[in-house]
Amino acid sequence: MSSFCVESAGGANPKFDDDGRQKRSGTMVTAAAHIITSVIGSGVLSLAWAVAQLGWLAATVCLVIFSLVTLFTSHLLSDCYRNPVTGKRNYSYMDVVNSNLGGLQIQLSGIAQYGLLFGITIGYTIITATSIAAIKCGSKEVCHTSENWFMVIYGIIQIVLSQIPNFHNLTSLSLIAAAMSFAYSFIGIALSLTKINQGDGHIVRSLTGIPVGWRGLRSEDKVWRILSGMGDIAFAFAFSPLLTNIQDTLKSSPPENKVMKKATSLAIFVTTFFYMMCGLIGYAAFGNDAPGNLLTGFSSFKPFWIVDFANICIIVHLVGAYQVFSQPIYAFVESWSSRKWPKSDFITREYSIMNGKICFNLFRLIWRTSFVILTTVLAMIFPFFNDFVGLLGSIIFWPMTVYFPVEMYIAQKKIPRFSGAWNRLQMLSLFCLIVSLLAAAGSIHGLIISVKKFEPFHTTS
């Protein structure tokens, strides 16, 4: 069993890297697994609903554009991992912004990054409880069961897993979680193809999505739904805040930026393929009646154990994904606390058990446990997964995925203001800002509607 202890520098010790930290062992495969774990989340199952709102053409165009923009800006971000002058590593997204831009933008990037990650952990708690409830209900047409206890169980599991010190110890968990994301995505696609093959003359599909007048749909509602669908797609690609932390797990040779570019290219290609398959095939299977969660549309499918297995895969995946999204928050708070109180044994001292095979820290134990409890309680109070996280995704996509990578690349390469390259990069940034604002407006509208119906701690499926 490998040690979970966080070791300290020791000169030229081969156990440590050039910065005195534990030797990094990450590769393109492990980095891609981390990215896929964070990208192919439960949100992939809502894409059929998004396609229903936008229609075949617009949804396909949106998926392709968001993936290409994310791929381009991710490559820009990977070049910012090391300071071009000193060669010093940047361990987090905020460190990259500090190294290349500085000033107020450091605080703004921190608020955007950690706000998104915090919101996603709440959303994952909600969707995991929903999947557990779906398994409990089985094929019952009417089933009302409280999800609160399921959220508590999920929270207890995360309290235990949160004691894993850092990203470097998450490789196995990420590989398992990535495999689960593939499994339930494949099942969703397979069930959709089966439904298409069975044929149903009542399924209505359209090039432009659900038409005005369909079951009383008004023109303004159609617009809001289109914007909300764009928000869902934007959220599906809002993973840039994690990329620097993932790049920091890579071995120093070959150069981290080259390996990271290959990893992001592979991961984005794979995830976009699955997004297209789940979204377009899911819409083909259900048409205008596409559900918010693709798997909930198969409640009458037999044998039902296949749907149960898909929900189990979602649960296992989100157990790992929660850690991928929460570890940067843990690292930020613990790093700041160590700098603030370097002589405090409560914060810095590591205790070993099982002959040093496992180490724990009192501050890490209390702080991370408190964080998980907070996210669990908030999930129980505000169970609005789609609107809440969709809003976060649409707001954060532009600054974290586009604005900061573009501005840091311009600063690092010293691109002249108003030059051709500068103008093209700024036009890309402006376009993405407009799209993000429109998507945020749709999510806010949906959130307002949800709030009107909500009762705290009364979440049921």
TrEMBL record:
Domain Amino acid transporter transmembrane: 25-449
Source organism phylogeny: Eukaryota, Viridiplantae, Streptophyta, Embryophyta, Tracheophyta
Main location: membrane
Annotated organism of origin: Daucus carota subsp. sativus (Carrot)
Transmembrane segments: 31-50, 56-78, 114-135, 147-164, 170-193, 266-286, 306-333, 365-382, 388-406, 427-451
Name used for this protein in its record: Amino acid transporter transmembrane domain-containing protein
Entry keyword Transferase: no
Highest taxon of the lineage: Eukaryota
GO cellular component: membrane
Keywords: Amino-acid transport, Membrane, Transmembrane, Transmembrane helix, Transport
GO biological process, one term: amino acid transport
InterPro entries cross-referenced by the UniProt entry: AA_transpt_TM
Subcellular compartments: Membrane
